[in-house]
Amino acid sequence: MRYEWLAQYLFDNLDEVQRFATRWLWAYNHERPHMALGGFTPIQRLAMAG
Q: How many angstroms separate the CA atoms of 4 and 20, rounded?
């Protein structure tokens, strides 16, 4: 996460960092397929396990 976005942007305050991190984490887990999970998102893979 540090190299993917934290080092690439200048933030004005910690609230801004928190909002950005929350959006990034949601997209990472819900929208971005992971090859290590067979091309599924973590949420999809979790749903398959349950």
A: 12
Residue 44 to residues 6, 11, 26, 31, Cα–Cα distance (Å): 26, 32, 13, 10
Residues in CB range of 47: below 8 A, 6 or more apart: none
**1-50 confidence digits (pLDDT tens):** 677 777 888 889 999 999 998 998 899 889 999 999 999 999 999 999 97
What is the residue whose two structure tokens read 């067979």? 38
Distance, in Å, from the CA atom of 46 to the CA atom of 17, rounded to the nearest integer, reads 27
The conformation of residue 13, written as its DSSP 8-state character, comes to S
Alpha helices in the chain, H assignment, sequence order = 14-30, 42-49
